[in-house]
Structure to design on (143 residues):
């Protein structure tokens, strides 16, 4: 079966826009074939405002997302493989979706760095990558 990610991105984009909110994409800028302005990449990730008023020629395709946007007043053609999109959410309230890595996808760069860097795990205080089996990242609700 084909990936459901592009369909979910399109649906959530429409839902966010229909509710008068600003859709943002969280992108893993370290993935191959990602074309974004590197000056705006932080920790291997970039957040992109993809509202209709912020971009031109937006194409939410099945394999790639294409658009042109201004960064620091300069136009820049952006190209995002669908697999590089980590999530889509509304800026105003954070509602949206984060995507799990698809089968066959490489581990993220951040996971690889954490395993070898001796960073500590926030939940347990133990060194990341220590023990027999590395833990998968998880989200938790903070009230």
């Amino acid at each position: 079966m084909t990936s459901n990610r592009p369909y979910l991105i399109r649906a959530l984009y429409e839902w966010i826009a229909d509710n008068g909110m600003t859709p943002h994409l969280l992108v893993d800028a370290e993935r191959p074939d990602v074309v974004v302005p590197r000056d705006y990449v932080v920790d291997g990730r970039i957040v992109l405002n993809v509202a209709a008023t912020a971009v031109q020629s937006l194409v939410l395709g099945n394999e790639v997302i294409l658009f042109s946007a201004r960064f620091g007043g300069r136009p820049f053609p952006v190209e995002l493989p669908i697999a590089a999109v980590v999530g889509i959410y509304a800026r105003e309230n954070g509602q949206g979706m984060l995507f799990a890595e698809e089968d066959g996808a490489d581990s993220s760069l951040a996971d690889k760095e954490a395993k070898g860097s001796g960073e500590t795990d926030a939940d347990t205080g133990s060194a990341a990558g220590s023990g027999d089996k590395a833990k998968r990242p998880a989200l938790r609700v903070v009230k």
Observations:
- Residues 103-132 have pLDDT under 50 and may be disordered.
- The radius of gyration is 17 Å.
- The helical segments are 5-18, 109-117.
- The beta strands are 23-28, 45-49, 55-60, 64-71, 74-81, 85-90, 96-98.
